[in-house]
Design brief:
Blueprint lengths: L8 E8 L7 E3 L5 E6 L2 E6 L5 E5 L8 E6 L5 E6 L3 E6 L4 E7 L6 E6 L5 E6 L4 E5 L4 E6 L8 E7 L2 E7 L5 E5 L4 E6 L6 E6 L5 E6 L3 E6 L2 E2 L2 E2 L2 E7 L4 E7 L18 E6 L5 E4 L4 E5 L15 E7 L4 E6 L3 E6 L5 E6 L7 E5 L4 E5 L5 E5 L5 E4 L6 E6 L6 E6 L3 E7 L6 E8 L5 E6 L5 E6 L3 E6 L13 E3 L3 E4 L5 E6 L5 E6 L3 E6 L5 E6 L5 E6 L5 E6 L2 E6 L5 E6 L5 E7 L4 E6 L3 E6 L5 E6 L5 E6 L5 E6 L3 E7 L1 H27 L3 H11 L2 H13 L3 H10 L3 H14 L6 H14 L2 H5 L4 H38 L1
Parallel strand pairs: 39-43
Antiparallel strand pairs: 1-59, 2-3, 3-4, 4-5, 6-7, 7-8, 8-9, 10-11, 11-12, 12-13, 14-15, 15-16, 16-17, 18-19, 19-20, 20-23, 21-22, 24-25, 25-26, 26-27, 28-29, 29-30, 30-31, 32-33, 33-34, 34-35, 36-37, 37-38, 38-39, 40-41, 41-42, 42-44, 45-46, 46-47, 47-48, 49-50, 50-51, 51-52, 53-54, 54-55, ...
Length: about 800
C-alpha cells in the first residue's frame, strides 16, 4: 500500500545527559533530586528523568565540584572549580550570596549542620573551614588533617557541636567547634574512608572505606571528650563507597528472633554493584541483592559510587560510576526505576519489539535498551569493547544483532515479558572493528563489514523454543570477500535479496551478488568516503550518501541519475520513507532534511543536534524516527503531517469566515467591529481601509480612541508596525500619523511600556515624518510658485 508523503516531523521526546557529577541529593518530598551537569545544577524528576529546573552560573566554563542541600531543603550551596561558593535560595528561586572559598586547593566536600546555620567546606589542601550562613563569614579554620577531605558529619547534642571528618590519612578527626580544637583521632582504617553515618540516636558512628571493612564507633559524650572506642570491626569483603542507615521496621520481614533489639542496621554498596544489609551487632549479612543492575564481570574498579535513601518513600537509590541511577524498593530491593544520567556519544540505534523499545550503542561496552514510553534504560553486558552498530532482525521482532570493536557480533534474543536478553549466537572472524551490519528481509542471512575491509556473509540460525538454557552458539562466516581498500561504513541488501551494496571510506560504493559475493559494479563519483547506502524499496535504484550530497544510481547501467544537494557538510546517514517516494537524511551539520525523490527538492529542514548525527532509524509505519549523534542527545521525532494539514485547513476555514464577517461589517458600516476584525486578522490593507472610513466619520476619532484603549498589547504592536509601513508612502502617511498620535497621547505609561517594539517604531516614524515634512515643504513651495505664475499671467 502506498503511503502518503510526509511534510513534517516534530520532536516528540528527547533524551539527553543531565548528570555528570559525583552524587545526587533529594529534596524533602522525594519527587525530585539535584545533580551536577557541567556548570549547571539540574533538578530532575525521579519519575521520568526530565529536567524540571536549572541553576546556572554566569561563567559556563566553571564546572561544579560539589553541592549540598540544607536539611529543610530551602537552600543549596554550590562549590565551583574556580573556588567560588554560591548560596541559592530554592524556596524563593533567588541567588542570595556569592563568596570565595579562600581554600588553597579545590573543595572536595560540603556539609550543612542540622540547624542550617553552619557550612563546612573540606578541601584538597587538608583544611576544613566553617562558614556562618546567616552573616556569610568564615568562623573557623580547622587544621591537623592530612590529605584530601573525603567526608564530613556534624553531631549536635547537649549544646555541643562536634565535627567528624575523614581525609587521606585514613583517620577520623573529631573537632569541638566551640573550643576550636581537635579532641579525638579515631584510627582503625588502613585505607581511604569513603563514607560515614551516625545512628539514629547519635551514639554510634559507622564508617566504611576501601579497606573492605566497616567500623562501629562509640561516639557518646564523656566529659569534654568522646569515647571514640571501636565497638566492632565488620569485614565487608569489597571496597565500599557509600552507606545508608536503615530503620528496623523496614527490615522486619527479613529479621528473625535471634536478632538483638539494640542492633543497628545499615546498607552498603561498592565495587560489586550489589546492595547488602548488615547487622552492626553481629556483623553478619541480613540480605544481599539477588541481581545487580549490571553484571559484575567488569574490569577492576569502583562500580557504584553512592547509595542514598529517598525521603518519604521506602526506597533506596544507587548511583553507578557510569552515572546511571537505580531505584529499589525496600526491603526486597526490586528495581522499580532506572534513569540514564549520562548518555555519551550515540553511534547507532534501532527500533525493535514492535517499535516499543530502542537498542542503542553509545560509546560503551554495554548494549543499552530503552523503553520508549517511559525512557527507562537497561544495560546488558556481552561485548568487551565499545559497541559500534545495532540492527533489528526483520523476521523476529525480539532479536537484535550488535557489533563491536572487539571484532565480534552478538545475536540477542529478548524475553517478551521481562525484556531480559540472552546471547544466542556469537560470530567471530573479523580482525578489526566491525562498523556495518545488514540483515536480509526474507532469507536467514546477514552481512558485516568494518576496518578489515572485508565483507562477510553469516547464517542467521533459527532459535529453538526450548533453548533458554542452551549455550551461546558460535557462527562461522559462509563467505568472505575483500570488498574495499578502506573501512566499510555501511551495508544494504536489496528488497528482493539478490544484491548487497557497501559504502566505504575509499570514496566508492560497490554492488555484489548475495549468492557468491561476486562484484557487479563499482560506483564512483563522490569526493569523500561513502557513509551510507540504501536500495530503493520500489525503484531499481540505489542511493549513496557522502561529501555534502546524496547520489541516486540506476541499477541497469549504474549511472548517476540524480543528485540531492542541500546539506552544508557531509551526509552521514539517510533512509527511505513513504514507500520509497521520499528520503530523510542527517549530516555533520546537525540538520535533518526531508527530500522528495521525484523532484530532488528538500521539502523540510529540521534542526535538533549540534554536531555529527551518526544514526537515523524509522519505525515500520514511518510515524516515528530516532536520531542521535555526537552531542550526546537522542531525539525521537513524530510525524506531524496530518496535524499540520488539519491546522492549515482550519486556518483557511477561519480566514474565509473572518473575511466574510469583515465584509458584512463594512457593508453595514459597523466600523468599530470591522476595525476589530481587521486587526484580529492582521490584515494591513483592510485595517487601513477601515481606518480611513472611521476618520471620515464625525465621531471617528472618539470611536478610534475607544477601540485602541481596549486593545491588547499584541494588537497595539501590530497597529504600530502598520503605522511604520503606512508612513513610508505619501498616500497613507496622514492616516499613520493620526493613529500613532492617538496611541501615544491616549495610552498610559504602563500600556506603552508593555509594547516592546514601540521604541524602534518611534525612531522609524521619526525618520519617516521628517521625510514627509520635507516633501510637504517642497510641495508647498511648488504650489506657491504655480500661484505666482498664474497671477502673473492674469496681470499681463
Amino acid at each position: 500500500m502506498t503511503k502518503s508523503l510526509k511534510t513534517s516531523y516534530s520532536i516528540h521526546h528527547q533524551v539527553e545527559s543531565f548528570f555528570t557529577g559525583s552524587s545526587i541529593q533529594f529534596d524533602t518530598s522525594g519527587q525530585h533530586f539535584y545533580c551536577a551537569h557541567g556548570s549547571t545544577i539540574n533538578k530532575v524528576s525521579i519519575v521520568d528523568g526530565q529536567v524540571k529546573a536549572q541553576i546556572e552560573t554566569k561563567n559556563q566554563d566553571d564546572s561544579v565540584l560539589r553541592f549540598t542541600l540544607s536539611p529543610d531543603g530551602n537552600l543549596i550551596i554550590i562549590a565551583y572549580q574556580s573556588g567560588l561558593i554560591v548560596k541559592f535560595n530554592l524556596a524563593e528561586d533567588i541567588l542570595e550570596r556569592e563568596f570565595k572559598s579562600i581554600h588553597s586547593a579545590p573543595i572536595s566536600y560540603l556539609k550543612i549542620n542540622l540547624s542550617g546555620t553552619l557550612l563546612a567546606t573540606g578541601s584538597s589542601d587538608g583544611t576544613i573551614k566553617l562558614w556562618n550562613l546567616k552573616n556569610h563569614y568564615c568562623s573557623h579554620n580547622l587544621r591537623g588533617v592530612n590529605g584530601v577531605v573525603s567526608c564530613i558529619e556534624f553531631k549536635e547534642s547537649s549544646g555541643r557541636v562536634l565535627l567528624f571528618c575523614s581525609a587521606g590519612d585514613d583517620n577520623i578527626h573529631v573537632f569541638d567547634i566551640d573550643a576550636n580544637k581537635r579532641i579525638a583521632k579515631l584510627t582503625t582504617h588502613c585505607s581511604t574512608i569513603t563514607d560515614m553515618k551516625f545512628s539514629h540516636d547519635g551514639d554510634k558512628l559507622i564508617s566504611v572505606g576501601r579497606d573492605k571493612i566497616a567500623v562501629v564507633w562509640d561516639t557518646s559524650d564523656w566529659e569534654d571528650k568522646i569515647r571514640g572506642t571501636t565497638i566492632r570491626t565488620i569485614p565487608l569483603y569489597e571496597s565500599v563507597e557509600s552507606i545508608v542507615m536503615i530503620d528496623r521496621e523496614l527490615l522486619q520481614s527479613l529479621l528473625d528472633s535471634s536478632v538483638a533489639e539494640d542492633s543497628i542496621f545499615f546498607a552498603t554498596i561498592g565495587e560489586q554493584g550489589t546492595i547488602k544489609f548488615w547487622d552492626s551487632r553481629s556483623g553478619s549479612i541480613l540480605f544481599t541483592q539477588n541481581e545487580p543492575p549490571l553484571s559484575v564481570d567488569r574490569s577492576p574498579g569502583i562500580y557504584c559510587t553512592q547509595l542514598v535513601s529517598r525521603p518519604s518513600h521506602n526506597q533506596l537509590c544507587a548511583v553507578s560510576s557510569e552515572k546511571d541511577i537505580f531505584v529499589y524498593d525496600l526491603p526486597r530491593l526490586n528495581v522499580i526505576q532506572q534513569l540514564q544520567g549520562h548518555i555519551d556519544e550515540i553511534l547507532s540505534a534501532c527500533w525493535f519489539a514492535n517499535d516499543r523499545y530502542l537498542a542503542i550503542a553509545c560509546n560503551s561496552n554495554d548494549l543499552k535498551v530503552m523503553e520508549v514510553s517511559t525512557s527507562k534504560t537497561q544495560h546488558f553486558k556481552g561485548h568487551t569493547d565499545i559497541v559500534l552498530a545495532v540492527k533489528a532482525v526483520p523476521s523476529d521482532p525480539m532479536r537484535v544483532i550488535s557489533s563491536s570493536k572487539d571484532c565480534t557480533i552478538l545475536v540477542w534474543l529478548f524475553e517478551p515479558e521481562t525484556m531480559i536478553p540472552r546471547i544466542v549466537c556469537k560470530a567471530t572472524g573479523h580482525t578489526h572493528a566491525i562498523h556495518a551490519l545488514a540483515i536480509s528481509n526474507e532469507t536467514q542471512i546477514f552481512f558485516s563489514g568494518g576496518e578489515d575491509t572485508t565483507l562477510k556473509r553469516w547464517p542467521l540460525v533459527d532459535i529453538e523454543s526450548d533453548s533458554n538454557n542452551r549455550p551461546t552458539k558460535p557462527l562461522v562466516a559462509t563467505q568472505t570477500v575483500k570488498a574495499h581498500e578502506g573501512r566499510i561504513d555501511d551495508i544494504a541488501i536489496s528488497p528482493n535479496d539478490q544484491l548487497v551494496a557497501t559504502g566505504s571510506r575509499d570514496k566508492t560504493a560497490k554492488i555484489f551478488t548475495v549468492d557468491g559475493l561476486m562484484i557487479v559494479a563499482t560506483l564512483r563519483g563522490h569526493r569523500r568516503g561513502v557513509h551510507s547506502v540504501r536500495f530503493s524499496p520500489v525503484d531499481q535504484v540505489v542511493v549513496t550518501a557522502a561529501d555534502s550530497n546524496l547520489r541516486m544510481w540506476n541499477l541497469k547501467d549504474f549511472n548517476c541519475v540524480k543528485t540531492f544537494q542541500g546539506h552544508d557538510c557531509s551526509v552521514l546517514n539517510f533512509s527511505f520513507l513513504a514507500s520509497g517516494l521520499q528520503m530523510v537524511s542527517v549530516g555533520s551539520d546537525g540538520n535533518m532534511k526531508l527530500w522528495d525523490c521525484k523532484t530532488n527538492e528538500c521539502m523540510k529542514t529540521l534542526d535538533a543536534h549540534s554536531g555529527n548525527t551518526w544514526t537515523l532509524s524509522l519505525t515500520e509505519d514511518d510515524s516515528l524516527l530516532v536520531t542521535g549523534g555526537q552531542d550526546e542527545k537522542l531525539v525521537i521525532w513524530r510525524d506531524t503531517t496530518e496535524e499540520e494539514r488539519e491546522e492549515r485547513l482550519l486556518s483557511v476555514q477561519t480566514s474565509v469566515t473572518q473575511e466574510q464577517d469583515l465584509l458584512n461589517y463594512i457593508n453595514k458600516k459597523k466600523w468599530r467591529k470591522a476595525l476589530k476584525m481587521a486587526i484580529a486578522m492582521e490584515n494591513q490593507n483592510k485595517t487601513l481601509s477601515v481606518l480611513r472610513e472611521i476618520l471620515l466619520e464625525p465621531e471617528g476619532i472618539r470611536q478610534l480612541e475607544d477601540v485602541l484603549m481596549k486593545s491588547s498589547p499584541e494588537r497595539l504592536n501590530f497597529i504600530v508596525d502598520c503605522c511604520v509601513g503606512w508612513g513610508a508612502t505619501a498616500k497613507n502617511s496622514a492616516v499613520a500619523q493620526q493613529v500613532f498620535n492617538i496611541i501615544v497621547r491616549q495610552l498610559d505609561r504602563g500600556q506603552l511600556l508593555s509594547m516592546p517594539s514601540l521604541r524602534a517604531s518611534m525612531e522609524q516614524l521619526r525618520l519617516l515624518t521628517e521625510k514627509s515634512l520635507n516633501r510637504y515643504e517642497r510641495l508647498t513651495q511648488q504650489a506657491h510658485f504655480v500661484d505666482f505664475f498664474l497671477n502673473s499671467l492674469r496681470i499681463q
